[in-house]
Write a structure and sequence with these properties.
The complex is a heterotrimer of chains A (356), B (324) and C (320).
Chain A lengths: L5 E14 L2 E14 L3 E5 L6 H8 L8 E11 H4 L14 E3 L5 H7 L4 E4 L3 H4 L6 H11 L5 H14 L5 H4 L9 H13 L5 E5 L7 H17 L3 E6 L2 H5 L4 E6 L2 E7 H6 L4 H9 L39 H5 L5 E4 L2 E3 L19
Parallel strand pairs in A: 3-8, 3-9, 6-7, 7-8
Antiparallel strand pairs in A: 1-2, 1-4, 4-5, 9-10, 10-12, 11-12
Helix pairs in contact in A: 5-6, 6-8, 8-9
Chain B lengths: L2 E15 L8 E15 L3 E5 L6 H8 L7 E6 L2 E2 L5 H8 L2 E4 L13 H11 L5 H14 L16 H13 L5 E5 L7 H18 L2 E6 L2 H7 L2 E6 L2 E7 H6 L4 H9 L5 H6 L30 H5 L5 E2 L5 E2 L6
Parallel strand pairs in B: 3-8, 3-9, 6-7, 7-8
Antiparallel strand pairs in B: 1-2, 1-4, 4-5, 9-10, 10-12, 11-12
Helix pairs in contact in B: 3-4, 3-5, 4-5, 5-6
Chain C lengths: L26 H4 L9 H10 L2 H23 L31 H37 L1 H16 L2 H11 L7 H12 L2 H14 L3 H8 L4 H12 L1 H24 L11 H10 L6 H28 L6
Helix pairs in contact in C: 2-13, 3-4, 3-13, 4-5, 4-7, 4-8, 4-11, 4-13, 6-7, 8-11, 9-10, 11-12, 11-13, 12-13
Classes of the chains: A alpha/beta (356), B alpha/beta (324), C mainly alpha (320).
Chain lengths: 356, 324, 320
């Protein structure tokens, strides 16, 4: 047992994609801690590295062209049941580095200890197998249950995620389910082995608003009921607002800001986070104000800007931002931001709470 | 306000095969089922609804991509459905469309210059030099570097591509633009750029928009009035601020409460109206009120009688038996 | 209270007063495209260059063309010159491939045979483009009844074996002074555009639902423009792959027909004829069949390697 109540700690994770045009630094020295029994939201646009980070954790990066170049993914060794692989000493005592596990050991981690929910449930379900077969498969494969037990548990899981007549629906094929129902099945499947961590990669992006609401409500309910930690990846700040305990904002393969959910929305510590919030209209806005967009496009990761990756699009960019990349500095309790505006000599910026 | 576009009792059914791979059994998918509305010159009319509500079909029928099954579309006192092919092509240049997916809506084998120039090329407008000049001007209008005319679409980012699509739509000086989910495929930080640009263009060029989207917050922001559609029918119409404050139709209420708000203090406490079940098939819609199968206040009468779109005062229309 | 922050700066850089002032705005940079221009074709060429076999195939085909055009010209012998004193010579410096039963230089005849093979290939490719692409494109674009009728015609033609067509044509044109090569061309013409029509139809069916095709409609583009300017150029990848795989099959068919005596006949030299003649003397003079057979093999391999390479290079799913 490690003392820190940490379930997973990603440390200096670096994943590159080697393409003919050059090396894409998809994830660059990413460090993130996932406490036990918590929900972490990762927010970022396309190309921010949020999905690649999670695929790296699962070691599902297609190679070539992708390669995990360095770093560690420490996972609670007691939970994995791999006492012989645990660190004996140091800050990561009692943790197991997933990146150094042999392939067959990693296979036992996937699904059993880390469940995954994908964006498009249709792609991740096999169209020619019944839902029942697909649901019981991983439980049986991980040796957690016999066929009969697995079947019973699958029915329970389907009922838990709100599928009516689960007993009968077990014999149906994926195409007989609607989009929202398929996503519920995916959630049930991800939870069937009671994993310690569930990674949900844009779980509601391909769904309609009312179905999205159903799924988010379901996830909130499950969060209260189950002990799993959840990492929810989204491009939308409003989706994680209602469910996450901690939110991480990613951009160009690195964390720009990390904070407790209330802190992040009330006193954002990075111009990018502020920009994201101002650039979307709010349904509860009283009158129609002009949106404040973030100018420009996300950077080309083949030739990222020197210095702060956000500087070319940043309203408040200073000379130093163009020269070197700011470090991720602590600006409050559990609140880190990667911005030079927090430096004591930096000018004050309206609406920006400066600490440090 | 002068009416620029009038849609009356529009129906669009698609014939689909429901007999499986070996049998032919045709049925009609009622994508749009008796829809009527008007758009005033210079206004932005929002059309919201979820998958299968027929919003895209309405837009595509207006610009002439689909022939309506029944009903009329009147544009500036001209019945579009009765026009000859040639006449239709001419009118169409005033009625343009912006597409959803900026990755699919530009021909990957054509340069950006050729893409924007094409409408002028088709209608033989101006000399080659004049057209080049206009392409440069259009690129500047949408905030792109005019030197990039010889680049191919894949070299641009999503937001830039969408602006190329807008430039193409503007090439013929249109009056009416159907924007079919123009921002839903874009990154969050880019969406506001495009929305602001659409607002500016409307101001400067006097455009009228039919803004189709599923994002209620964005529709509320950009539209003057909003139509809410469900399963091929319009269930509610109102000024966009009013519809948020006083939604009348149970579906509109559910839709509004489903939209997440980027504020944890509100979001963590929020009591949502969560709709039960799934969208019924548009091939076989429920009898009476289409929404009744998922409606929290449905009564037996909803299955028997179809509610009419009634005016509740000052243009607030709603189709529900239990709203008064 | 939070842990105190330590600011680390890059080595050798000491921030001064000027570091923390707003940087000058450069709005032009935001819309600048950084990458160098790439097109679909330059990308495809780059990818096919990495495929060694495809490159080898490409150069063999080029060599084949050069030999077909110039080979018979520079050769001191003609393909029909008989030299009855030097029949059945083994390969020597004068006759690198030896001579046949009438003393004709086998190398010149093989080189001449490549002309016929390539002519067949070119006719096949041309018909593929002219008939196959247009036919498939029209069928898919207009769809519905048009598609039904056009595709049933293709099905019917598919049902007739090439061999039957050639035999019928041979009977029909017997003693009419028509070169047997024409029979082969007509037969290939009738059958070899069919797979192309089907492939193009499939491509266009999916392409015509894409938004750029709809966009072309909304700007008032007429049908032929949408089909030939927007849809077919986007199906060019599969079209080219199909051509490179159809051509060797047509060449092989000609060789086969000539081999069984239904194609060109002596003294005209086609690889099929040469192989057929050579087979008769295979026990005593195996080189006579060896060289034409090698030529056929090499051509088949070259086209198929190139075709496979093109398929990988032009497949949009493999683009990164």
């Amino acid at each position: 047992m490690n003392e820190n109540n940490v379930l997973m700690r990603i440390q200096d994770l670096t994943t590159n994609f080697h393409t003919y045009a050059g090396v894409v630094h998809a994830v660059d020295k990413m460090t993130l801690t996932v406490p036990k029994d918590s929900v972490v939201g990762i927010v970022g646009e396309s190309g921010s590295g949020k999905s690649v980070t999670m695929m790296s954790v699962m070691r599902l990066i297609p190679n070539p062209p992708g390669r995990i170049e360095g770093g560690h993914v420490w996972f609670d060794g007691a939970a994995l049941g791999m006492p012989d692989r645990m660190e004996k000493d140091g800050p990561n005592k009692g943790m197991v580095d997933l990146l150094s596990l042999p392939g067959d050991a990693m296979m036992k981690v996937r699904g059993r200890h880390i469940g995954m929910i994908f964006q498009d449930p249709m792609v991740s379900l096999n169209p020619v197998l019944t839902i029942g077969l697909q649901m019981t498969e991983s439980m049986v494969a991980h040796g957690l249950a016999t066929n009969e037990e697995a079947w019973k548990r699958a029915v329970e899981m389907l009922a838990l995620v709100g599928i009516p007549n689960p007993e009968e629906r077990m014999r149906d094929y994926p195409h007989q389910y609607s989009g929202g129902m398929r996503q519920r099945v995916m959630i049930a499947m991800a939870l069937s082995c009671s994993p310690e961590l569930v990674i949900a990669d844009e779980p509601t992006t391909s769904l309609d608003v009312t179905v999205q609401a159903q799924i988010l409500e379901l996830m909130k309910e499950l969060k209260a009921k189950l002990k799993s930690s959840i990492i929810i990846i989204s491009h939308d700040l409003s989706i994680v607002a209602g469910i996450a305990d901690k939110v991480v904002v990613m951009y160009a393969g690195r964390i720009l800001e990390e904070a407790d959910v209330y802190d992040l929305y009330e006193k954002p510590g990075h111009p990018y986070t502020m920009g994201l919030m101002k650039s979307v209209p709010r349904l509860d806005a009283e009158n129609r104000e002009r949106l404040v967009p973030i100018e420009g496009s996300p950077p080309d990761l083949l030739a990222p800007p020197v210095g702060c990756k956000f500087a070319p699009r940043c309203k408040y960019a200073m000379n130093i931002c163009r020269e070197q990349e700011p470090p991720l500095v602590t600006v409050g309790e559990g609140h880190r931001a990667r911005c030079f505006l927090h430096h004591p000599t930096a000018p004050a910026v309206p609406g920006f709470v400066k600490v440090g | 306000m002068e009416t620029i576009l009038k849609v009356e009792h529009l129906k669009k059914y698609f014939a689909i095969n429901v007999g499986g791979p070996f049998a032919r059994h045709m049925a009609s998918l009622k994508a749009v089922d008796d829809v009527s509305f008007e758009v005033g010159r210079g206004e932005t009319l929002g059309l919201v609804g979820e998958t299968g509500c027929g919003k895209t079909t309405v837009g595509r029928t207006i610009v002439g991509l689909y022939a309506p099954t029944a009903g009329t579309i009147t544009y500036c006192d001209e019945n579009l459905c009765a026009l000859s092919r040639e006449a239709m092509r001419k009118v169409r240049s005033k009625l343009q469309m912006i597409f959803q997916d900026p990755y699919a809506s530009l021909n990957p084998r054509m340069t950006v210059g050729n893409i924007i120039e094409e409408p002028m090329d088709i209608f033989n407008i101006g000399t080659m030099a004049e057209r080049r000049e206009r392409v440069q001007e259009l690129l500047r209008t949408v905030g792109l570097n005019p030197e990039h005319t010889n680049r191919f679409p894949h070299e641009f980012s999503g937001g830039q591509r969408q602006r190329i699509g807008i430039a193409r739509a503007l090439a013929m000086n249109p009056e009416f633009i159907v924007a079919d989910e123009p921002i839903s495929a874009l990154d969050v930080s880019i969406q506001a750029q495009i929305v602001n640009m659409l607002e500016d263009l409307q101001q400067n060029l006097g455009l009228t928009y039919l803004f189709i989207a599923h994002d209620l917050a964005m529709v509320k922001h950009i539209s003057d009035r909003v139509l809410v559609a469900y399963l091929g029918k319009i269930v509610e119409v109102d000024e966009s601020n009013d519809i948020y404050k006083h939604p009348l139709h149970p579906y509109t209420k559910a839709l509004l409460s489903a939209v997440p708000i980027p504020d944890p203090r509100i979001e963590m406490q929020r009591q949502r109206i969560v709709l039960k079940g799934d969208l019924p098939s548009p091939v076989n819609p429920p009898s009476g009120c289409h929404f009744r199968t998922r409606c929290p206040i449905a009564q037996p009468i909803c299955a028997e009688q179809e509610p009419e779109l009634r005016d509740m005062g000052s243009g607030h229309m709603v189709s529900c038996h239990f709203v008064s | 209270m939070a842990a105190p922050t330590t600011w680390q700066f890059k080595e050798g850089v000491t921030p001064d007063a000027g570091s923390f002032v707003p940087a000058p705005k450069n709005s032009g940079e935001l819309e600048q495209i950084t990458g160098r221009p790439t097109t679909y074709w330059s990308d495809a060429i780059r990818r096919i260059r990495r495929n060694k076999l495809a490159v080898v195939g490409f150069w063999i085909i080029i060599a084949l063309f050069v030999i077909a055009i110039f080979g018979p010209m520079v050769s001191p012998y003609s393909y029909e010159d008989q030299d009855l004193e030097n029949t059945f010579q083994s390969p020597t410096l004068q006759h690198p491939f030896g001579t046949d039963q009438l003393g004709r230089d086998q190398m010149t005849r093989v080189m001449y045979g490549s002309r016929i093979s390539l002519a067949v290939g070119i006719v096949c490719a041309a018909l593929n483009f002219l008939i196959g692409v247009t036919y498939g494109g029209i069928s898919a674009y207009f769809g519905g009844r048009v598609d039904d009728i056009m595709m049933r015609i293709v099905d019917i033609l598919y049902g007739i074996p090439t061999l039957i067509i050639v035999i019928l044509l041979t009977v029909l044109f017997k003693d009419k002074g028509v070169s047997p090569l024409v029979n082969v061309f007509i037969a290939i013409g009738l059958t070899y555009w069919l797979p192309m029509a089907r492939i193009v139809r499939g491509e266009i069916l999916s392409l015509k639902e894409r938004e750029f095709a709809l966009a072309a409609k909304t700007i008032g583009a007429p049908n032929n423009r949408i089909l030939f300017k927007h849809l077919i150029p986007n199906a060019m990848g599969p079209i080219i792959v199909t051509v490179t795989l159809e051509v060797p099959s047509a060449i092989f068919t000609e060789a086969f027909l000539s081999y069984i005596g239904l194609g060109v006949s002596a003294p005209v030299a086609s690889w099929g004829v040469l192989a057929s003649d050579g087979t008769e003397a295979i026990r005593s003079f195996p080189y006579l069949v060896l060289f034409p057979a090698l030529a056929i093999c090499l051509t088949m391999f070259a086209f198929n390697f190139l075709g496979d390479g093109l398929r990988d290079a032009l497949d949009p799913r493999l683009r990164q």
